[in-house]
Input
Amino acid sequence: MSSIHPDQITADRLASGARVESNVKYDPSTGDGSLVDTPGQRPPLVLNNRSFNDVTEIICGYVEKPQPKWWLPVFLHTFGLAQLTGLFILYLVITGIGTWGLNNQVDWAWDITNFVFWIGIGHAGTLISAILCLLKQKWRTAVNRSAEAMTIFAVICAATFPGIHIGRQWMAWFLPPLPNANAIWPNFQSPLLWDVFAVSTYGTVSALFWFMGMIPDFATLRDRADLRSRKNPSGRFVLPFVPVRVDVLQSKIYGFLALGWRFSSRHWHRYEAAYLILAGISTPLVLSVHSIVSFDFATSILPGWHTTIFPPYFVAGAIFGGFAMVLLLLIPARELYPHMKDFITKRHLENMSKIILATGMIVGFAYAMEFFIAYYSGNEYELGVFLNNRANPNKAPYWWAYWIMISCNVISPQVFWSKAMRTNPAVIFGVCILVTIGMWFERFVIIATSLHRTFLPGEWHMFWPTLVDIGIFAGSFGVFFTLFLLFLKFLPSFPIAELKAVLPQASPHHHPTNSPGQGDHGKGAH
Amino acid sequence: MSGVDQCPTTHGEKAKVQKPTAAELAAQARELPTLNGKKVWRSLDEWSDSPEFRDHIEKEFPHGAVEMHRAFTSAGTAADSDGSASDSRRDFLKIMGASMALAGVAVIPGCRRPEQKILAYGKNVPEEIIPGKPLYYATTFPRPGGGADGLVVETHEGRPTKIEGNPLHPMNRGRVGIWPLASILSLYDVDRPVEPRYNNPARKNDDKNDPDTRLRATWDDFRAWAKEHFPKHAKSGGDGGEGLAFIVDKKTSPTRDAMKARVLAAYPKAKWVAYDPAEAMGAAEGTRLAFGTPMRELYSFSVEPGKETTKVIVSIDKDFVAGGSDEIANARAFAATRRVMSTKDQMSRLYVVESGLSQTGSQADHRLRLSPSQITAFAVEFAKRVARVGGPDQDAVLAALNKIEVPANHGIDSHFLDECAADVIDAANREKTLIVAGPTQPAEVHAIVAMLNGMLGNIGKSVRYLPMGEDESDASVAKLAGLAADMNAGKVKTLVCVDANPMYAIAGDVNFKDAFEKVPATITLSTSSTETARASTWCLNGTHYLESWGDAVAHDGTISPIQPMIAPLYAPAMSEIEFLALIAGGDFAAKVDGHDLVRETWGNSFAKGNLDKVWRRALHDGVVANSAPAPQSPSLNARSVAEKATGLKIASAASGSIEIAFAVGHAHDGRFGNCSWLHELPQQGTRVVWDNPVLLSPKTAEAMGLLPKSYSVKDSSDMYTKEKYPSGRMVDVTVGGRTVKMAAWILPGMADNTAIVTLGYGRRVCGLVGDGVGFDAYPLLAASNATAGLAAVGSISKLDEWYPISSTQNHWSMENRTSIVRAVDLPAWQKWGDEKGPSGATFYRETEQLPFGERLGELGHTPPNESIYINPKNAGRKEAEAGSTFSKGPQWGMTIDLSTCTGCGACTVACQAENNIPVVGKKEVAKGREMTWIRVDRYYIGDDFNSPDAIYHQPVACVHCENAPCEVVCPVNATVHGDDGLNYMVYNRCIGTRYCANNCPYKVRRYNFFEYGKLQFNGDYMGKDILNDALPERGGVNGSNVHNKLNINLIPPRLREKIAEIERMGKNPNVSVRMRGIMEKCTYCVQRINAAKIEAKLHDMKTADGNAAIPDGMFQVACQQACPSESITFGDILDTKSKVHETRANPRSYKLLNFLNTRPRTSHMVRVSNPNHKLRAVVDDPFHGHGGGHGESHDKSHGEHAFYDRSKRHEDDGYRLSLGVLTSSTNGGRA
Output
């Protein structure tokens, strides 16, 4: 075993390169953190030779300093969009499900499409935080907090849809097994009930995991706010007419959220253990949630739904779509927030692109297998769905949806075979947009195109979305982005302690003499 | 409602109306301006809209509630004369706006659980009533235009709720068609005239929204007016009736005839027209030619008594199973000739020559599409061939027939003609044939057909005759045209219309509107809101037939009584006979009583001497026993008939013109215009609802450039499916210089160069439901059409406008899924029917030998689904295992015979009535949200969709799967299985996830997307704007504007319920009305099953082995009960003596989509047709010759080529259609 941490070689080289630029050749392929071909060398996970103090200052700065100029206008827009969804939902509840374009043949369309879409997006966060944690993938530290936040927000968006899609929304409490006047248990055979359990468990565990990871960072924010309020007792008020000082309020709130965290070794010890346990609990959930969501379809007898391939295919699809959404959020964020590129390097982008490529291929394989099995089964209804409801432009009214799905999900990720492409944020962003569109259409194709033409041609009918369908879907993006912007504004968007742990300085083999950051030991956290 | 007359057998003693005391009256009275300026007290009984309610809401919302109530209940007809009505709608909106703003989100009414209320009894509860138990009374539905159906009406607590057929009535024998079923809606029609109105010509009203100038009046006002008016026409001192004219509804009724005699006795010179605007007098005139006197035809399909044995039936454009006064009897008897239960059974063969696509046509073994003039030519050519049958007159007849000029290029397939005629004159079929002619054909064709029947020896066997009554045989349209001329000439001073609506339903070449205005005094007694009633000087409220006494004569001459089920809802009111008696009596203060009038008539005629006995018996049985005269078999001189028919002219359409055939639709002549069930019942062939587009064949539509927007050559059977709201192109239809703007729609299987125009739509003053539904096609009709055949030559020019049209089934093809409707030819059934398959499906590692019906489907070659889930009610996984729940009776099941289903839709309407199924309106249907629990799927079969080889009808309702896919997926246990095999739907448990509907392979579950059940249909239909342009005169004439605009969910539930207070009286109290957001579906009429169960228990009915049992036939489900062709059987499948056990075990039975392992309790029976092998190849082996491969088994060679009809292909050879095939296989269409 090498006595020197592999990252350190590069770090040292970069450090010297950064310091004495005229003498040392700067390696452009590693300077942005992207992977090099030399197996022994890895770029650092945090660029620009950041000290512990830098990490704390930068990350806490996102919360403490004023947001960039673009933040408020963007927030107002997304918030407006979120209001829209509220109004549309209100209208829906007052007037009835008929305000959607559903009918007696297509009884689910955008509602469940959006549900599966959002719940799929919610997969990346837990995959990054749990599975990658267990696999000791250190690069996860830079993205796990925001990915987890995204998961929570996506689950919130997702959970809205099953809640409002039922005909009598005020009776939604019939779903959980509560003792009630009817004295009837819910039907434990129904995949919809499994959904209730799966999604609520997933949401709860993800939220706990997310929150627990933030506790030390809340403590850091608390302490810093407390210090500020002591240093400067005449700080800003929250609002002109509210006699509460911002710093005091922050220290109170973050203090409450920090649950009395004191950075003691015992705390850290318990924290590490709990984190590992939660990672262990979450890992099967990553696989189970979308498997169970896929059971909504797979347990039915409808051609196009009744497929055993669904659980793995849905999980792969969810990771695929989820990573695309993580990248959609992080690529603009690292451009727009100061110094964020130091933490989210091209190496991160590249890794995630590779996951997108891999899961995209799995999804593509699943598409092909579905088709093959439909043909091979000799079941005319099954083949009818794949050929005449989906793929055949001469017969299928929704053929375009199917081909959008194929081109976005199978074809577009293929550009990631090229290193130049998968390290180019603009390209990645573009592909991620396509993948997100493609994954939405995947769910639409599965749900609507299977339903609109089933067994008996006498009951075939098209689905056409209404303004309310579109409004609620668009609004769910508003909710999602609003929550994410609030997250960036108010919560520590990176795990400070974990990031410090992947700094070269944190390595036990780190030579302080080579590093200007030697003096940082022990002071960065506070 | 008060004073319910509930006892039909109390010698007509009407239950006494509870009179309020004077003090009560004084407390309730309001000031009402009336004709003579006097203030009158109005009794409680006159107030239809429940004064308690008004008082109640006035206490709660002292001022505004009244506005609201008025805006909803009386915007249509009952506008106030004090001018406040015009403001009420605006006021209402103001109030609503303000209260919504104040109420805010906290009291969103949509979230509230609506309160349930029932209508309580009045103070007097009739003796027989056991609360909760319905009473059944016999009465009669007088058919429009003559004829009658015997009814048994279910009444709940004095409210009639459901119309059922009277099993003792010889014509309908317990079955009912759509019109009687739906007539209950017109009883509870909120737009009915509720009180007399006087149209004061001096009064001006500039209100655009309600240009009504009429004053509210009372019957006393009318009586006072009439007392002064009618002496002008009296015999002594008046003109003797010279200036008096009567237009009454054409019907057959002894008492009405007696009243006519009274009227004509009192006013000898009065003119009398018994009017049927859509009448076709060809048959009457044709029999007049043939026999010298107009005769009514009585088909029997039965050569030997009691056995339906007619072998060959040729229909020359006659839809004998639908529309006529003998439709039910014909449907039943014809079905009996088609129902093959064993491989030995005989089956009739039906040839149909027609322009449109009728129910009869869909049953045809061989069908020829011809335009009306071609059909006339066909009749002549056919007669020439059939006349060779022999007999003394053969040569003379042939010589006479040859004199008729038949266009040389008539375009009729001579092969068809030859073989059809050969089949008819085949010695083996002699005297077992029947030839019938229809309404588009002129009298001569009917005479020729009578002659042919005579020559073939059918008269007295398959067809017999009854003389027609005087009114019935009158060509009333022509007579009315004469009357209109008199009116125009100013000769008519007083016009009395009784339940007739000539202001709307009038041939276009009769200038009736101007004529009407020239009559100084017009009096209309009407049960419903009509254009004539609106325009009349006096509009009087009539009683519905369920509220009045009367009688009617059925098609076969049977007399049956009409007795009231309920006291008139809007009393005082008069029935037709009472009103005529009042006028004839001359004493306008006299009390007239329909009950006495009917008894008097009967006592003077057939019941002379023993009136009481006959009367009592008739009221109980619903028919007058043995009142039908013996049918006649008049002899006929073929030679002279043929010579009389030589005057026949065959006018074919010149190039550039198109032949137009007139048809009567669901609204009949327009009288059912305000009946939402009928509007929402899908129409034959098109499955269009709420409209009457002009129908064209695909080829004709293409030639005229009228293909729909979404048309694509890629998939022609999808013509209308790819648009959100399918639209037809607007066209100008012109006949004889009269133009009507209509939308065009394509109907595959119609004759080319022919348009079908349906009458009875486009009503202008009808009510909330019917105003402006469809297009008024009457202007196209000419007065001469009634006798010359309901067809004309006209032209169609396209407009640059589109009109949305809703159809429940826009997809035309069965997509080669031949196992859905399984159909074979008779020889195949005879050869293979008794044989079980050599090997069949493997279920759970056991190979089953499949019976005939199942061998035809997927189970023969598709691996069936297997479930890992063990059904707790039957662990055996196959047929009920001994000891399992499903092995213990009763276990309910149903069988639907596709051989005999004509697609009439009676099952749908009966189900709607029985189960309180709401209508949803045109727009909702376009979205695919119709609520019917039983639907009839229609498929076109064949290679060429311009000329489909066959049309299949398949009724589908919930099949009550034993392994129900819907049950496992419901998260809240809202749909569960009963021990008797029913798939229950628990409404109050349902939260509406709709997963069950998704997982239902039959797609029979229906979801309440909006509050359909509790709200009355709110008139929100598409195309109203276009229609307003097309019919400017109707603009806002009758107000459904509020209903159109307002989100009804924003009305507080308590007030919302009041909107439909009258309509709610018609609901079946044994079936809950579903609220929005929940799923519903066929329950196998569980309320009837439970009623029978209780009854069986009370009477301790037991089987031989001591188990409680419901004997087969103790009750019927609603669809089964209505089905005219008796295609539906229902019962206990474990009861080996039950009919359903027999039909289920029949090899023709198959279970739809059974390879899914759903194990349906409803099975369908293979459709068998009996083709003539000389006209097309008959397939006698449906199992072999399709290659035997699995994946490949569904190309064209399988099944469908059985319906490949050479003669029809030949017909189209001159024209190669660029449209793709109807049933294209998976690789796209044929080029």
In short: Strands of chain A lie at 237-239, 242-245. The longest strand of chain A covers residues 242-245. Residues 191-231 of chain A form the longest helix (41 residues).
